[in-house]
């Protein structure tokens, strides 16, 4: 007997959703859409998204010893405590898609009602300096609990750093594809939170990358091309039939999120600012540059961002071998590249770059201030650095023991917090992540091993780096000869390197 289905039953809805329609089939790279159409913009954007923050070949070890899909940007504990929402025009409306990185799909986010893109841009305070209108709004939404359940309060800073890596890499990927991109931190967070249906989800939009297709005024720049693949990244597919939902929070997550009120930018009024060109590296005050160790410019030649993004990975351990000065020179080259961002006007903004050399052929062990302007290392004192120093600095993470050098990204943090408050905290972490992301890409070009390190003893690192009083280390990058056989050890739900007191839970 045939069972009668009422038209409103979930079963019938389910059945409808499972049916295929020939119109739905979209194969990337098959037919090239006409330039300037919504299809062409989506195709270009899909390439930017995957290079910026999507899948790369392979897996990485994450929580509980499980392997998860590797991505183009690093993440503390491979937890990726953020979601990527992509607003694009579909006819008159702006539809917001959730980029589901693991499945390589972009599905419309059920909680975000469609609004015209121009309205979204204007109301959220994302006005751009670009002459052409914004074509896509990529919102990086932190889910702090994902990191804080493991790392405690320090995990909140990791959301800033993880998102800073992704925002920087997205902007670089967009530029490499001939598009214009601007990173926004000073936008109307509450408005955007509601517009995206994020209220009550324990998530917060931390950064937005607006993407613009250059108009005729920018003729002569690289053409906007859909991705061609071939570098091992999985270009996401736009889907319109299945809606995406965000996982709802539980009670511990709610309590944790509530406790972020005094720290999070979401609860602070923001003055909207138009983007300018920003560099994230601060120049050190050096009285006598005659003692400088001049560094060679990278001879490797420019390698396309797409190739580097696909190749980037963290060293899981280092071999007991020295890195060469030339490798270091290539690693540090071009860190001051500019990006359009709306937090550009702060004088002296950005982080200082300090090198602690332990085993680098061509220079004596010790601390060096890096001058990005002169591309030179200025000796800052200190003597031999041993493995015990590295271990003590890096919370006894044994995989980092043989690092030949440590790069310390630093700033006078307390002064910054006094002057800029919570915006200062967020912005300096974006600067640090922007520098670290460029280091990661340079490392892929120079074939030198790097690991971004969040678990470090700040006071020990500052002493080792001979930092002036008041300067604090925000982020640390360990450099060395990567050991391809090394495996991460600390993948329990608890981060032993973070102890319980310093990182305590809110
Ligand atoms: C903010 C941040 C903090 C990190 N802290 C550490 C750390 O303390 N020790 C470590 O070995 N790796 C650290 N990593 C590297 C991650 O473990 C690594 O990115 C992750 O396992 C994914 O692997 P992949 O970078 O090769 O894609 C950190 C990465 C980020 C972005």
Descriptive notes:
The termini are far apart. Strands 9-5-4-3-6-8-7-13-10 form a 9-stranded mixed β-sheet, with helices on both faces. Strands 11-17-16-14-18-20-19 form a 7-stranded antiparallel β-sheet. The protein has a two-stranded antiparallel sheet with strand order 1-2. The protein is globular and about 80 Å long. Helices cover 28% and strands 21% of the residues. It folds into 2 domains: 33-274, NADH Oxidase (3-Layer(aba) Sandwich); 277-498, NADH Oxidase (3-Layer(aba) Sandwich), CATH 3.40.109. By secondary structure, the protein is α+β, with helices and mostly antiparallel strands. Residues 218-226 have low confidence and may be disordered. The protein contains 12 helices and 20 strands. α4 packs across α5 (154-176), α5 packs across α11 and α8 crosses α11. Bound molecules: flavin mononucleotide (FMN). Residues 60, 70-71, 74-78, 158, 161-162, 165, 313-314, 397, 399, 451-455 line the site of flavin mononucleotide.
């Amino acid at each position: 007997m045939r069972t009668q289905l009422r038209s409103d039953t979930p079963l019938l809805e389910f059945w409808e959703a499972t049916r295929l329609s020939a119109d739905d089939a979209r194969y990337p790279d098959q037919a090239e859409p006409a330039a300037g159409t919504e299809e062409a913009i989506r195709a270009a954007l899909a390439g930017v998204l995957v290079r910026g923050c999507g899948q790369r070949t392979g897996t990485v070890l994450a929580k509980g010893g499980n392997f998860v899909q590797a991505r183009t940007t690093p993440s503390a504990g491979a937890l990726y405590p953020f979601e990527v929402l992509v607003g694009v025009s579909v006819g008159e409306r702006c539809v917001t898609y959730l980029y589901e990185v693991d499945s390589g799909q972009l599905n419309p986010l059920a909680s975000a009602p469609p609004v015209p893109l121009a309205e979204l841009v204007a109301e959220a305070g994302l006005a751009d300096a670009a002459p052409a209108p914004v074509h896509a709004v990529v919102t990086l939404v932190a889910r702090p609990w994902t990191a804080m359940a493991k790392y405690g309060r320090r995990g909140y800073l990791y959301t800033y750093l993880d998102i800073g890596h992704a925002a920087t890499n997205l902007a670089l990927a967009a530029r490499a594809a001939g598009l214009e991109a601007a990173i926004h931190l000073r936008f109307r967070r509450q408005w955007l939170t509601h517009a995206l249906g994020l209220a009550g989800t324990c998530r917060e939009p931390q950064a937005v990358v607006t993407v613009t297709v250059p108009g005729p005024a920018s003729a002569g720049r690289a053409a906007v091309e859909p991705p061609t693949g071939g570098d091992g990244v999985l270009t996401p597919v736009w889907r319109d039939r299945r809606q995406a939902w965000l996982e709802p929070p539980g009670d511990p997550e709610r309590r944790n999120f509530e406790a972020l009120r005094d720290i999070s930018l979401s609860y602070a009024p923001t003055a909207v600012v138009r983007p300018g060109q920003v560099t994230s590296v601060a120049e050190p005050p050096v009285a006598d540059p005659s003692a400088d160790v001049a560094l060679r410019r990278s001879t490797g030649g420019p390698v396309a961002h797409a190739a580097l993004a696909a190749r980037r990975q963290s060293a899981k351990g280092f071999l007991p071998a020295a890195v060469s000065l030339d490798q270091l020179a290539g690693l540090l080259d071009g860190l001051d590249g500019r990006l359009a961002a709306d937090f550009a006007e702060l004088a002296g903004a950005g982080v200082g770059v300090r090198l602690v050399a332990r085993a680098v052929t061509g220079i004596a062990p010790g601390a060096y201030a890096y001058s990005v302007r002169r591309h030179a290392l200025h000796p800052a004192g200190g003597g031999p650095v041993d493995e015990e120093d590295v271990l003590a600095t890096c919370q006894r993470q044994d995989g980092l023991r043989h690092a030949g050098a440590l790069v310390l990204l630093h700033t006078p943090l307390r002064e910054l917090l006094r002057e800029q408050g919570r915006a200062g905290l967020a912005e300096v972490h974006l600067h640090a992540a922007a520098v670290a992301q460029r280091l990661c890409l340079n490392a892929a070009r120079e074939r030198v091993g790097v690991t971004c390190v969040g678990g470090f003893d700040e006071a020990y690192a500052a002493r080792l780096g001979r930092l002036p009083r008041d300067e604090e280390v925000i982020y640390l990058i360990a450099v060395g000869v990567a050991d391809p056989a090394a495996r991460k050890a600390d993948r329990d739900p608890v981060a032993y390197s973070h102890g319980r007191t310093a990182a305590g839970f809110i």
